[in-house]
Amino acid sequence: MDSPKRSLAEDHSIVELLGDLARDLTGLVRAEGQLARAEIAEAGRSLASGAERIATGAVLLLVALVMQLAHWVGPAWAPLILGTALALIGGGVIARGRKDIGAASLVPERTSEQTSRDARLAREQI
Question: Which residues cross the membrane (predicted)?
């Protein structure tokens, strides 16, 4: 039989290569996890900041509208008229906000794409 036998050094290098591969894959998975966490945190901060600004603007606008309307119809009627109008508008805004929040994607798309590319590359290499 003329089958070539592997030397101990060749076997050792295969073991080393497999160990290196395992370490690299572990590092890659950790890095992808960190990227996913960073993306989700960034999206959450952006949503929270936008919500805070909307709430602040709404309160300031409400006070300004009551003050302006009170000059035309009297201080007793201004809050009632404005409250009714704002209830109608608020219902529409809430409906739109629920729709937008439902459509907002908190899925870390870049991480998902990168993980897919990494998996495809790993399959090609093996």
Answer: 54-70, 76-95
Q: Is residue 2 part of a domain?
A: no
**1 is a domain residue:** no
Could you read off the pLDDT of 32-86 as tens digits, one per residue? 888 888 888 888 888 888 888 888 888 888 888 888 888 888 888 888 888 888 8
What is the tally of structural domains in the chain?
1
- Whose tokens are 């794409």? That residue is 113
Domain that holds residue 36: 8-125
Instruction: List phi, psi (to 5°) of 28.
Output: -65, -45
Model pTM? 0.44
Domain-embedded: residue 104? yes
What DSSP character marks residue 76? T
Q: How far apart are the first and last CA of the chain?
A: 29
Contact 32, 117 (CB under 8 A): no
d(CA 31, CA 111): 10
Distance CA 18, CA 13 (A): 9
